[in-house]
Amino acid sequence: MTVKINYEKCGNISNCPGEGLCIKLCEQGALIDEGGNLKVVDENCDDCDLCIANCPNQAISKG
Q1: What is the CB neighbour count within 10 angstroms for residue 38?
Q2: Nearest Cα to Cα of residue 49 among 28, 35, 34, 20
Q3: Closest CA to 54 of 16, 28, 1
Q4: CB–CB of 62/1 below 8 Å?
Q5: Residue 1 confidence (pLDDT)
Q6: Alpha carbon distance 28, 20 (integer Å)
Q7: Domain, as residue range, for 34
Q8: pLDDT of residue 63
Q9: What is the CATH number of the domain that holds 13?
Q10: How many domains does the chain have?
């Protein structure tokens, strides 16, 4: 199962207190910066949950 982004909570990478920490933590490249917005690349997600556990805005969840 892949992750889902709540874009209302996320607030774009430029407004993230973690400065895109989820992207930095994802070793599989499942989370990318697409024009300042967070995007999930489903086929790369290996369900490690690092992004969910470390999102300062609690904007990432299982989908």
Answers
A1: 22
A2: 28
A3: 16
A4: yes
A5: 72
A6: 15
A7: 3-62
A8: 77
A9: 3.30.70.20
A10: 1
| pLDDT averaged per 10 residues, the chain (length 63) | 90 90 96 94 95 96 89
Give the separation between CA 14 and CA 20, rounded to whole angstroms. Answer: 8
Burial of 22 (0-12, 13-18, 19+ CB in 10 A): buried
The reported pLDDT for the residue numbered 5 is 95
| Alpha helices for the chain (secondary structure H) | 7-10, 21-25, 50-54
User: What are the tokens at 62?
Assistant: 């299982």
> 18, 12, 29: which is closest to 55 by C-alpha?
18
> What is the pTM assigned to this prediction?
0.89
